[in-house]
Amino acid sequence: MLVFIEKYRNPDALSAYIRQKIIDPQEKYYVLLDEIQYAISKEELKNKDNPVKLYSVLNGLLHLGNVDVYVSGSNSKMLSKDISTEFRGRGDIIKVYPFSFSEYYRASGKDKFDAYNEYVMFGGMPYLLNLDSDDEKSEYLAGLFEEIYFKDIVERYDVATPGILRELASALCSSIGSLTNASKISKSIKTAKNISIDPETIGKYLNYLTDSFLFSEAARYDVKGKKYFEYPYKYYCADIGLRNARLGFRQQEETHILENLIYNELLCRGCIVDVGVVPLVERDNAGRRTQKNCEIDFVVRKGSKQYYIQSALSMDDQVKEVTELRPLLNTKDSFKKIVVSKSYGKSWIDENGILRINPIDFLLDEESLER
Predict the structure, then answer these.
(1) What is the value of pTM for the model shown?
(2) C-alpha span between 132 and 134 (Å, rounded)
(3) Which letter does DSSP use for residue 100 in this model?
(4) How far does Cα 334 stand from its chain's mean position?
(5) Helical pair 162-174 and 182-193, crossing angle rounded to 10 deg
(6) pLDDT by residue (tens digit) across 320-371?
(7) Looking at residue 228, what is its pLDDT?
């Protein structure tokens, strides 16, 4: 029986209710608590020095030998970070993503090309499979973005300027896969909307959007120096359909959308994903040595393995070919290298050992990193 009564947002009332149901020490009990952030007060959220009462309740239940506790919520900070500190090895983290393309394809019953076109437009929110028309899907995604995600963030964090939060979300959706930081976004909003907002507030709002699973942040990694840059970062939408709905389905830049789809797919596969930076030394016409940084779209780690991936919508001309391959070839190491492009039909490995593969094959084949 599912129970949702507002009084159980109070941890003491919740604890009393659960414990009165645990009556037989020989029986196994399973406690499932959804959206646990509503049982944590705003004061506890704001003041990190205050103990979170709900965690004491959960810890008490974990000490009962016949109880398994499952909690879920839409805020990463209260789940992943606190599980590692508050529950010290007594909890496991399971991240739940929207449908990957392979999951959407299998559930949709469509031809893989039709499924891909649908997925690129509307993303992988499971409820979409219950909707028939494009209008229904568009309306559902727009409502989900505004009524669920935004209202939740504004209420949870007492956001003083929700209009700025909306502008920030729109800016991130419009520039997925572009390097940016709080200062740059602040200036951009000032220029575009004539609204002044300090970088500190933008940085705080960025944390809200990533902690609430709307966006993911990818850091830049120096492949040769084996170190991270402090800034800028790239931001990707957790679901491409939500991104498109936020922009009114007006900005369908498939180049950036493809990059976002690959990034999300890699996260679904349990990979750690960074943006790669490779220094490239060249000589100018006078023979002087110059150095510039080239970018690899993704440096991917899974366990002890590492991969380099370039996302390129088209590879139909020589200039594009040289641009995309240069950073891969200049890593000077033996890690697997992959180019994902719609220019390719059947996948193959070229003379440099680089796998060339089209997006549909890459997304559908869960072993495509090892091909």
Answers:
(1) 0.87
(2) 7
(3) P
(4) 28
(5) 100
(6) 999 999 999 999 999 999 999 999 999 999 999 999 999 999 999 999 999 8
(7) 94
Which pLDDT value is given to residue 327? 94
Name the DSSP class of 6. G
Strands 67-71 and 29-33 come out as: parallel
How many other CB atoms are found less than 10 A from the CB of residue 131? Answer: 16
- What dihedral angle (degrees, nearest 10) is formed by the CA atoms of 85, 87, 91, 92? -10
Beta-strand runs (E) in 225-353: 227-228, 233-237, 272-283, 289-302, 305-311, 336-340, 348-349
Both structure tokens of 158: 């007492």
Q: How many CB atoms lie within 10 A of CB 80?
A: 12
Residue 125 one-letter amino acid: M
Convert the pLDDT of each residue in 159-171 to its tens digit.
Answer: 989 999 999 999 9
Local confidence band at 157 (pLDDT 50, 70, 90 cut-offs): confident
Report which of 109, 91, 107, 110 is spatially closest to residue 99, judged by C-alpha positions.
Answer: 107
Distance (Å, whole) CA 31 – CA 29: 7
CA distance 202 to 164: 8
